[in-house]
């Protein structure tokens, strides 16, 4: 009897294997282990549901969930998280309403779900339904939702109202400033924090990297008490992003205890900067490789048109990963070999939402809407991203009515859905329709972004309605994102003086606006005569000398 028990596989170890295989994208291996377990427990089922969801197999995840003998709250939350992870908002909402019980994690998931797609009002509805109004995790999720949608003032008000704060609360608010380029406010808030961890430092360093202030990023990086792998990779990737590949390599060489993430970051640095030969050498020197390593190299070969080499590398993978296969499909599509891409797509044992969208986008970008629609119909469940791809495809070929039909059939729309259709109208000369759609978008509760403003301003200009273009934004709620969007919209349409005037209006409304000037400089580059005319404002905007020099260099290009 004792020997029989001794030989029985340890279910705890097998459950861990299912989770590990799922995380690595080796879903077939996870399925094999699951089938080997003769008496699976609830944790086994939950682990398999999670693995299915992580690999885009939501149909299998739901089938397993429906057939499992005993469910617990973790089972419900696992499937809910899977729907959110794969952008299946409608399914997530339906499941949430059916749940027999919920905990703080459930509510935090749904707040995050709505916030990710700009449905802040719905996120707030969930927040107000909290049975435990003191739960800090849900407050943190709501603050993060506000900051990721650029609504910093509302995030700060909520932060100030919190009954209990933890370090995550402080970091969520700090993320708001750094994520939106408000580094002066971010640094002030950082200095006010009583307790800081490595995440706090990483957010600050990452914020400076995002606005191109690498000197400040390096300064604070060197002050981190105990930098972790994320700290090093943030600095390395920052240098690589701005083309300082030798500095990136120096950071890599100084890094102690290099892990696979660091090796992959350095490999990506070479590929992103077009140093494919160096990337090949580095790839061969790597002590270990994973799917990310292979995917990065495949992307590198695709960039220089070596599709055969990329495909041979894909064939050497023992367990082909969805991301690597999707990269190969994308490569074929980029080089107008869509049929070759479809062959790989059809051979795949599993596909995630990104893979489906890559294939679908390939057809829509080529104007092959019949094939796109055929593929669209084959999908069991469709995410917002998939619907948006179809809208953009129909709009691109001038089938505005079909695009509108798609929009109307969506249960959950986001700002990209509306922008795709508005863009189609402007591209086809339907400027009045574009403005009408903008009004409908506002009624739908979606906040316009810089693309929306640019499209609307362009429509106004084409209709000789400049006065409307200068007045419509007064009715829009003013926050950092909407200010920056308007400024970018004016700059893109050559209205430099109007853009500069908005800076002054921002100051009157009490907003920090250095990031707004950086947006104009780095993305749209006002005409040099405008830059010279407002040189005093330029110098006033940047108290940090290195940032002022960077802005001047942008104008000089």
Folded structure, characterized:
It holds the Pfam family PPR. This is Pentacotripeptide-repeat region of PRORP domain-containing protein. It comes from Cuscuta campestris. The chain is mainly α. Helices cover 73% and strands 0% of the residues. It contains 37 helices and no strands. It is globular and about 70 Å long.
Helix share of residues?
Answer: over 70%
In the predicted model, the low-confidence regions spanning at least 5 consecutive residues are: 1-7, 522-557
Oligomer state equals single chain
How much is the average pLDDT?
A: 84
Main beta sheet: none
The number of distinct β-strands equals 0
Question: What is the radius of gyration computed over CA atoms, rounded to a whole number of angstroms?
Answer: 25 Å
Query: Count of DSSP helices?
Result: 37
What structural class is derived from the secondary structure elements? mainly alpha
Task: Give the strand content.
Answer: under 5%
Overall form: globular
Task: Quote the distance from N terminus to C terminus.
Answer: 80 Å
Question: In a nutshell, what does this entry contain?
Answer:
The chain is 73% helix and 0% strand. It contains 37 helices and no strands.
Summarize the topology.
Elements lengths: L1 H6 L3 H13 L3 H10 L5 H13 L3 H10 L5 H13 L3 H10 L5 H13 L3 H9 L7 H13 L3 H10 L5 H13 L3 H10 L5 H13 L3 H8 L7 H13 L3 H10 L5 H13 L3 H10 L5 H13 L3 H10 L5 H13 L3 H10 L5 H13 L3 H10 L5 H13 L3 H10 L5 H13 L3 H13 L6 H13 L3 H6 L8 H13 L3 H13 L5 H11 L3 H6 L1 H7 L3 H12 L1
């Amino acid at each position: 009897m004792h020997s029989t028990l001794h030989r029985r596989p340890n279910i705890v170890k097998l459950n861990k294997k299912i989770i590990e295989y799922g995380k690595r994208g080796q879903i077939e291996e996870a399925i094999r282990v699951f089938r080997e377990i003769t008496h699976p427990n609830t944790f086994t089922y939950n682990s398999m549901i999670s693995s299915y969801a992580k690999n885009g197999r939501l149909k299998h995840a739901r089938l397993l969930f429906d057939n499992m003998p005993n469910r617990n709250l973790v089972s419900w939350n696992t499937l809910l998280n899977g729907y959110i992870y794969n952008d299946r908002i409608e399914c997530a909402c339906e499941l949430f309403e059916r749940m027999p019980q919920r905990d703080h994690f459930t509510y935090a998931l749904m707040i995050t779900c709505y916030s990710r797609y700009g449905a802040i009002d719905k996120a707030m509805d969930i927040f107000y339904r909290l049975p435990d109004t003191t739960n800090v995790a849900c407050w943190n999720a709501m603050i993060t939702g506000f900051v990721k949608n650029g609504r910093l003032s509302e995030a700060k008000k909520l932060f100030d109202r919190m009954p209990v704060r933890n370090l995550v609360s402080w970091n969520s608010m700090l993320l708001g400033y750094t994520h939106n380029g408000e580094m002066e406010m971010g640094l002030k808030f950082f200095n006010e924090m009583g307790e800081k961890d490595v995440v706090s430092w990483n957010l600050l360093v990452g914020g400076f990297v995002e606005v191109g202030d690498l000197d400040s990023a390096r300064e604070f990086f060197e002050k981190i008490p105990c930098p972790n792998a994320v700290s090093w990779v943030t600095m390395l990737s920052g240098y690589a992003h701005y083309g300082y590949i030798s500095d990136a390599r120096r950071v890599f060489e100084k890094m102690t205890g290099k892990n696979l993430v660091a090796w992959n970051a350095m490999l990506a640095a070479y590929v992103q900067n077009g140093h494919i030969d160096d990337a090949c050498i580095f790839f061969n020197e790597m002590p270990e490789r994973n799917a990310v390593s292979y995917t990065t190299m495949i992307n590198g070969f695709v960039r220089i048109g070596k599709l055969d080499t990329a495909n041979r590398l894909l064939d050497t993978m023992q367990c082909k990963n969805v991301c690597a296969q999707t990269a190969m499909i994308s490569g074929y599509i980029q080089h107008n070999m869509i049929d070759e891409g479809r062959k790989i797509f059809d051979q795949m044992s599993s596909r995630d939402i990104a893979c489906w969208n890559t294939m679908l986008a390939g057809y829509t970008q080529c104007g092959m809407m019949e094939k796109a629609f055929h593929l669209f119909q084959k999908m069991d469940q469709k995410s917002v991203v998939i619907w948006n791809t179809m809208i953009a495809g129909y709009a691109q070929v001038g089938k505005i009515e079909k695009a509108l039909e798609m929009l109307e059939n969506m249960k959950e729309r986001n700002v990209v859905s509306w922008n795709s259709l508005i863009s189609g109208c402007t591209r086809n000369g339907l400027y009045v329709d574009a403005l009408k759609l903008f009004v409908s978008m506002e009624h739908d509760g979606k906040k316009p972004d810089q693309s929306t403003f640019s499209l609307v301003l362009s429509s106004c200009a084409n209709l000789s309605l400049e006065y409307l273009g200068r007045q419509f934004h007064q009715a829009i709620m003013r926050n950092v994102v909407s200010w920056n969007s308007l400024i970018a919209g004016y700059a893109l349409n050559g209205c430099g003086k109007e853009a500069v005037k908005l800076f002054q209006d921002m100051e009157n409304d009490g907003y920090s606006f250095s990031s707004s000037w950086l947006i104009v400089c780095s993305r749209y580059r006002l005409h040099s005569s405008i830059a010279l005319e407002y040189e005093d404002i330029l110098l006033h905007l940047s108290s940090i000398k290195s940032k002022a020099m960077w802005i001047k260099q942008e104008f000089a290009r």
